[in-house]
Design brief:
single chain; about 300 residues; alpha+beta; Beta-Lactamase; 2 domains; 9 helices; 11 strands; elongated; binds guanosine-5'-triphosphate; GGDEF_dom; Nucleotide_cyclase
């Protein structure tokens, strides 16, 4: 990207000598700042992806000020976004609009920040507010399109996106990958005996257990709702033995779980099919092997784990 933003480490403005000079210098400074802000705003408008907005901002700020790292924190994100390498001197800012808190941005470097540099930084951060707000809104929109509204798990589209990516990554890096398909046993009887709302509570509890039993991942979701009462877990870096342990843990947790709905205590069990990626697998065959294992578990009496 072409930019004419000043590239020196510090910001040098002419030293004022007389009141006339001072006024002229101030006018030049205001003009330079306006130009800088305009350029920065134009650059930040080129994307809605939050990490990229921050990377562009960091690159542009580094052209103007000597900064070693930028960290962005927001409780809505699962992890902080960190650019560069942290150093001794820090300054941080809360990003707020009239309505929203947009998180916090921190900068660091080896040398103290001067007052003038902090002023310049604050002015530049002003250009970051709208792009961050837009990126967070975009992120929220994308996530809600991929979220199952009842359970908060990923939906089928999210599952397909993630599984495709994880299969490609596992193959490229020659790493293990396992898939668990978890289906509630005789779920229809819950609906029939206690009503659909009771069934919904059970689905939420099962989704919660699945999230607790799966390990932290970089993916936006840890569990996916594939259909009515069927859920999927993607376990990266997990061999067949490890995935069987996770599956059995889930089965036991759910067997011991009680959902309380009105004055009823509801208990369910699950059947689980497990498959681990093999050389000849693609996303579809991996999933289909796990699904077949699930149906075998159902045929063999339910409340059990079957490894493909
Ligand atoms: N409460 C509730 N029920 C749902 C939802 N989606 C699907 N279902 C119900 O899930 C039930 C699935 O029933 P079946 O496919 O017969 O399976 P099952 O009773 O679990 O039996 P097996 O899988 O063979 O053990 C049906 O009664 C659906 O109406 C939902 O979002 N909420």
């Amino acid at each position: 990207m072409v930019t004419t933003v000043q590239s020196s480490n510090t910001v040098a403005f002419p030293t004022p000598k007389s009141p006339g000079n001072r006024k002229r210098t101030e006018a030049i400074r205001v003009e330079q700042h306006a130009e800088l802000r305009l350029q920065l705003s134009n650059i930040l408008q080129t994307t809605l992806e939050l990490p990229l907005v921050l990377q562009l901002f960091f690159d542009e700020v580094q052209r103007t000020l000597s900064i070693d790292s930028l960290t962005y924190r927001n409780s809505k994100l699962t992890s902080n976004i960190e650019l560069g390498i942290g150093a001794r001197h820090n300054c941080h800012y809360k990003l707020v609009t009239n309505k929203d808190s947009l998180g916090e941005v921190a900068f660091s470097r080896g040398k103290r920040f001067s007052e003038k540099e902090l002023q310049l930084l604050e002015m530049l951060i002003g250009c970051l507010i709208c792009p961050i707000r837009n990126s967070l809104m975009y992120r929220e929109a994308v996530q809600s399109a991929l979220r199952d509204p009842l359970t908060g798990s990923g939906n089928r589209m999210a599952l397909e996106n993630t599984l495709e990516r994880e299969v490609a990554l596992a193959k490229r890096h020659n790493q293990a990958l396992s898939v668990l398909v978890v289906d509630i046993d005789k779920f229809k009887t819950i609906n029939d005996n206690y009503g659909h709302t009771a069934g919904d509570y059970v689905l939420k509890d099962v989704a919660h257990i699945l999230t607790l039993c799966s390990r932290e991942t970089d993916a936006a979701y840890r569990a996916y709702r594939f259909g009515g009462e069927e859920f999927v877990l993607i376990l990266n870096n997990t061999e067949a033995n490890g995935s069987a342990v996770v599956a059995e843990r889930i089965r036991q947790y759910i067997e011991n779980m009680t959902t309380t709905f009105e004055e009823n205590s509801l208990n369910v069990t699950v059947s689980v099919g497990v498959a681990t990626l093999e050389d000849e697998d693609d996303m579809a065959t991996l999933f289909s092997r796990a699904d077949k294992a699930l149906y075998q578990a159902k045929r063999e009496g339910r409340n059990r784990v079957v490894n493909a």
